[in-house]
User: What shape does this take?
Amino acid sequence: MSTKTINLTPKLYDYLLNVSLREHPVLQELRAMTAQLPAARMQISPEQGQFMALLIQLLDAKKTLDIGTFTGYSALVVALAMPNEGSVIACDVSREWTNKALTYWEKAGVANKIQLKIAPALETLQKLIENGESGTFDFVFIDADKKNYLNYYEHALTLLRPGGLIAIDNVLWDGRVADENNQEPETQAIRAVNESIKHDVRVTFSLLPIGDGLMLARKK
Ligand code: CA
Assistant: This one.
């Protein structure tokens, strides 16, 4: 029983949520709104959000990056978990989705902590490096286009301080990573980042089967 991760039946998952979720009312509203969108699957699960908030507090994080902001749930989770001087640089290419995000960040009273950058995230990250901000970030969440995952990971590692943490979403990709018949570019890109981190001596790491799989890599 305890030698491997428990299988979450729908009933057990409901129990987990009922007994452990303490979700901010604006996060609840944002999640309900996002669930109505055609791209709803891009939303992280609430228990994953709560876990990320806990990580932020354990790290005492104050300077963070959100790569792939979508409707703003993960950025809001992180902003709410940080003290007033905390900051999130939120990267996305979609004005449509991030306009929704802005509404909820304001409603939750943390819009002042979140700086939205509408541009390809690699450009934003490159600019931060050119501005001399390497080694200054406490936490980076990567949840944008999967084909660039390795690039995002490398840039994030440069921008992170020693002891800082990268969290990468969807690393189990709904099980497709383990299906050898699946050779789609996105699946291959996720496999590549998982395998690359396994051999990367610059980090210690753990892959958690929460949500769609969350890779945590801590910079040495
Ligand atoms: Ca995701």
Observations:
- Residues 10-219 form a domain with the Rossmann fold fold (CATH 3.40.50.150).
- The first strand starts at residue 63 and ends at 67.
- The mean pLDDT is 97.
- Residues 46-59 form the longest helix (14 residues).
